[in-house]
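Writing this down once: the sequence line spells out the residues, with the fold written below as integer tokens. I am pasting one below:
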Amino acid sequence: MSKKIVWITGASAGFGAATALRMAKEGHTLALFARRREKLELVAQQCEALGSKTEVFILDVRNADEVSKQTKNAFESLGTPDVLVNNAGLALGLDRFDQANPEHWNQMIDTNIKGLLYMGKAAADYMVKAGRGHIVNIGSLAGKEVYPGGHVYCATKHAVEAITKGMRQDLFKFGIRVSQISPGLAETEFSIVRFEGNIDRAKAVYHGIQPLTAEDIAECIAFVIHQPPHVCIHDIVLTPTAQATSTLINRSQV
């Protein structure tokens, strides 16, 4: 297995941190991007302890200038990225449409769509010149379906699916693979962020089931990027066994 230079956004927690640790175990070189310096540096220390060369780059993916600056720094320090794990994203609120907070809409659109675009283009610029690369966008089951209260979050993840397909059509001629991972219920900081720190409400999301873990998603990412160069996996959709759709959940299994 060849060693890769892997960029990971949202690497301070959740899917991003788990993916960083999964990649570190294999000795890949890591560029970790996130807003929270203290948490990001802790993840980096854990990766380095596993033998991975790891550097941190503090940025908010919503800020195009920060993305441009920090991805340039990563390229100059580590070289052309072989893989971008475009993971940074969030959900905010689960209110009925007419009662929703428009600021929540703005944050989700700016992070989940614009941030993914900014990082994807930054990586693609280097990958096109190199004639190789792999972009893995983190989508969601919410990008396949819509559920009550999820109007804008679901819309952003539907956008990720469309953008992923568009990226693939535009970049395949340069030897660049584009994939998507689309998880269902996975227990990370996701619901805590969505409900603005309400721990009880966040835990209720996973009550009565065994949800996916961040490590489950990291394993999928590893599987996708380790395929032979002639193989491109377009999408992996995974849910807990107790979940059939976004709203059809068997809560009697635990």
In short: The chain has one domain: 5-238. The radius of gyration is 17 Å. Residues 113 and 184 are 19 Å apart (CA to CA).
